[in-house]
Each structure stands twice: as C-alpha cells, then as structure tokens.
C-alpha cells in the first residue's frame, strides 16, 4: 500500500497498517517528483494507493495509479470537478473507491437514516422537518463538509423533501460531529455520529484498501464496499 499525504490522516493510516502488518509506503503529496517511477517494482496492479492529501495533489495521484496499475482509495472529500472526472476516468481501468467519509460509524448512520425513511414511508405519516449540523475545529475551512452534504442528499433523495438547513460550526476539538435532527410537533429524533480520533478513519481506510485490492475496474462509493463487506461477513478478515 502507498499512502499519499504526511498529515494527521496519513500518519493514522500508517499506524493502522503497522498494527495490521500491512507493508506501507508514505508519499509526500508536496513532492511528487520523489514518488516511485512508473513501471518500477514498488507499486503494481495488486497494490492500493490511499490518497490522504488535498485536491491540489489529485492529478499526480491519478497519474501514479494509471502508470502503476494500482487501485485507488480516494479520501479527499472536497475534490474539485477535475478531480472527480479524473477518478471516473481512472475507474475505466482501475478500481477506485470514493470515500467521502471512511468511518464505519458514518456508514451505520446512513443505514439508520435509510431505515427511518423506510419506516416513515410505510407508516404514511407526515414527514418531520430535517436539519443537518456538522462541527469541525476551526482548522477546517471547507463548509459544509462533504459528509453533511451527503446526509442532506440522502434525506432529500429518499423523501423528496430537502433538509430545512445544512449548518456548519467551526469550533472545539478534533475531529468532527455530524448529526441529523428530525423534528415533529412534541418530539425529536437525533441520529448523531461523533469522531474523537482519526484512528476511526484510518481503520476504514485500511479495510477499504483490502477490499479494493485485486478488484475489477469500477467506481465504488465507500458505502457500497461496506454493503458488500456486511453481506459477505468479510469486514473483520485480513
């Protein structure tokens, strides 16, 4: 596995690799000229690149995967249009996992919201007002987070009703909080997921990399990978 990015997430993924006995190479996203040469023996089609960098490095990461044949787990949540198109193009020949959020808890939060929307439809009751609130420390400038936007899109896609608000707060300690609040007259339901350590994301990154290794080409949302892991019972197996 190659991990692109020397930040906190990249470091957490490297620690997780060490814990699981996965050989990992760290690549500095600011110095792509130091990366393994295309066609060399360092990376190949059975390997996976986990991109923990920033949108500015996406093109170099895509070129590395195209040249080496490696799969890609794309962890940059705020990809620009060029990066998104590049991932789609790469997926024609390589497996690409798009991970707006890497953590198992976020997947379970989505599953809970899906179940709630199914039950509301089955009961035929009036829809509640839905709002989404995300909190990150002040070091995160991008807002709303891609995770919050995805929760809002999930609600709208299932109910036809957009959230009343998708709000952002920049305050407090790392790492993040994402909540969906459903409000009826006299009652509320909160579906919340809080992350206190990037180890949660790192665990998901390694799990998704294992899933992607050797897979046929295609563009796979992280939650689709979790769906398959849940169906097959392979999530805990190396």
Commentary on this structure:
- It contains 7 helices and 10 strands.
- It is an alpha/beta fold and 238 residues long.
- It has 2 domains: 2-102 and 199-232, 3-Layer(aba) Sandwich (Rossmann fold); 104-194, Dihydrodipicolinate Reductase, domain 2 (2-Layer Sandwich), CATH 3.30.360.10.
- The strands form 2 sheets. It has a 6-stranded parallel sheet, sandwiched between helices. A 4-stranded mixed sheet has the order 7-6-8-9, covered by helices on one side.
- α4 (104-123) packs parallel to α5.
- The longest helix has 20 residues, at 104-123.
- It is globular, with a radius of gyration of 19 Å.
- The two termini are 14 Å apart.
- One of its GO terms (molecular function) is 4-hydroxy-tetrahydrodipicolinate reductase.
- It comes from Actinosynnema pretiosum.
- Residues 129-219 form the Dihydrodipicolinate reductase C-terminal domain.
């Amino acid at each position: 596995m190659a991990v692109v990015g020397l930040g906190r997430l990249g470091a957490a993924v490297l620690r997780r690799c060490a814990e699981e006995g996965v050989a990992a190479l760290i690549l500095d996203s600011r110095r792509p000229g130091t990366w393994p040469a295309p066609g060399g023996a360092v990376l190949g089609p059975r390997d996976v690149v986990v991109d923990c960098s920033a949108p500015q490095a996406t093109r170099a990461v895509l070129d590395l995967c195209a040249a080496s044949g490696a799969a890609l787990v794309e962890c940059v949540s705020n990809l620009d249009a060029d990066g998104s198109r590049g991932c789609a193009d790469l997926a024609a020949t390589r497996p690409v996992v798009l991970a707006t959020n890497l953590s198992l808890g976020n997947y379970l939060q989505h599953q809970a919201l899906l179940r709630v929307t199914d039950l509301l439809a089955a009961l035929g009751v009036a829809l509640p007002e839905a709002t989404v609130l995300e909190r990150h420390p002040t070091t995160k400038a991008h807002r709303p987070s891609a995770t919050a936007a995805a929760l809002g899109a999930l609600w709208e896609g299932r109910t036809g009703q957009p959230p009343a608000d998708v709000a952002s707060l920049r305050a407090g300690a790392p790492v993040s909080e994402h909540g969906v609040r459903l409000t009826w007259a006299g009652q509320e339901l909160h579906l919340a997921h809080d992350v206190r350590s990037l180890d949660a994301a790192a665990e998901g990154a390694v799990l998704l990399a294992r899933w992607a290794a050797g897979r046929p080409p295609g563009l796979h949302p992280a939650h689709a990978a979790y769906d398959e892991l849940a169906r097959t019972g392979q999530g805990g197996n190396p």
